[in-house]
Amino acid sequence: MIDASLVRKIRRRLLSWYDNHGRDLPWRRTDDPYAIWISEIMLQQTQVETVQPYYQRFLKRFPDVGTLARARLDTVLKQWEGLGYYGRARNMHKAAKVVVQDYEGQVPTTSEGLMALPGIGRYTAGAIASIAFGRCEPILDGNVIRILSRLFRYDQDPKSPEAQERLWDWATRLVPKGRPGAFNQAMMELGATVCHRQNPSCLLCPVATLCQARHHGEQHLLPKRVKRKARPCHTIAVGIVYKRGRILIDRRKPEGLLGGLWEFPGGKQEPGESLEETVKREVKEELGITVSVKRHLITIHHAYTHFEIELHAFLCQHMRGTPVCHASTAVKWVWPKDLERYAFPGANKKIFQALDLT
Q1: Is 40 considered catalytic here?
Q2: Catalytic position from the list 40, 81, 189, 286
Q3: 70-95 per-position pLDDT tens digit
Q4: Of the candidates 216, 249, 234, 205, which has an alpha carbon nearest to the alpha carbon of residue 301?
Q5: pLDDT digits (tens, 9 = 90+) for 247-306
Q6: Of 188, 215, 242, which marks where a domain is finished?
Q7: What's the CA gap between 136 and 127, in Å, rounded?
Q8: Interstrand relation of 266-268 and 246-251 (parallel, antiparallel or unpaired)
């Protein structure tokens, strides 16, 4: 149980600090629930500095939920290209359709209603409900977990079910009825700008004198760090398949990590297989055509959340067969200069550079 006087002190100090030191960010200048929703989805696992230009471009292209709902998924993914975690964009597109069809174009005002939409979990629902609608809802992300773990000197694995229950309870008790959105943003701001994972700036912290971890000199040790398994690395070989000057691309199925994006055909290398053999086999299995591998173009190392890839791209010539969608939803022969019109995974940008499309 948190002492009531401590709760009042934390609220008062954080809100005062936020009013004077909060950053001027574009999504903090609006009370439009749709714009706030877009910002919260983009900010999931992505730095503020990265999000800002995407946020402004996205709202210019899709200024309201109806425009987003009517847009083609390809168009949405192209606007999202480079921001990563593309499932966010696919779910947001689905959610926009639900809002238009089931809520008459109005973003739900409660956490329960928001969590019924694709891609919105408890944290995002709490953020939107509190910021856009003034609902007294808590939030719990990495920043808030770090602050709470240090404030209350909590040394358990924050991802364990027991810890999650405890942390959500603390977050719920702290959020005030009067200014829930401002308080939640203050917590996020403190974690992003002061209570860093490494080398927290305790001298600048408005709640430093209330922090139990700092009192015991343990702020650098919390939250508890649990050693995670090393990320596996997959070797991938893809073919840049030419035919009469055009290049063959195919679109991934909508589900999965990079669902709905376009790519060059290829896949994982099998044991004992050369990279050239991988390209031929994968292109044959994926699209039913035969290619001749001409030369290696580029090798790219790229990290995702749970794994890494070593991507080898080869220039190839189409030999026989008409492409068929065995493992994709569409195929196209496109002029090299038109590749930029399609939404590709981020790693492919280096292939574009190697192809010298300018």
Answers
A1: yes
A2: 40
A3: 999 999 999 999 999 999 999 999 99
A4: 234
A5: 999 999 988 889 999 999 999 999 999 999 999 999 999 999 999 999 999 999 999 888
A6: 215
A7: 10
A8: unpaired
**Cα separation, 264 vs 238, whole angstroms:** 6
- Residue ranges in 231-318 assigned as alpha helix (H): 275-287
- Are 158 and 206 in contact by the 8 Å Cβ rule? The answer is no
Residue 224 lies inside a defined structural domain of this protein? no
- pLDDT > 90? residue 35: yes
Angle between helices 33-42 and 48-61 (to 10 degrees): 140
Whether 172 and 253 map to the same domain: the answer is no
Predicted model pTM: 0.90
Together in a domain, 187 and 46: yes
| pLDDT one-digit tens code per residue, 110-133 | 999 999 999 999 999 999 999 999
Structural domain count, the chain:
2
Q: Which structure tokens are listed for 17? A: 């600090």
For residues 194 and 288, state if they share a domain.
no
Is residue 226 one of the residues assigned to a domain? no
Print the domain residue range for 24: 4-215
CA distance 145 to 224: 11
Distances (CA, A) of 223 to 17, 120, 152, 201: 23, 25, 10, 16
Confidence at residue 327, expressed as pLDDT on a 0 to 100 scale: 86
Half-sphere exposure of 317 (CA within 13 A, CB side): 5
Do both 205 and 270 map to the same domain? Answer: no
Count of other CB atoms within 10 angstroms of residue 276 = 18
Say how far apart CA 138 and CA 195 lie, in whole Å: 19
Q: What is the pLDDT of residues 197-229, one digit of tens each?
A: 999 999 999 999 999 999 999 999 999 988 878
Same domain, 189 and 242: no
Q: Which of 158, 183, 215 is at the close of a domain?
A: 215
248 and 171 within one domain: no
Shared domain check, 211 and 103:
yes
199 lies in the same domain as 240:
no
| DSSP at 156 | S
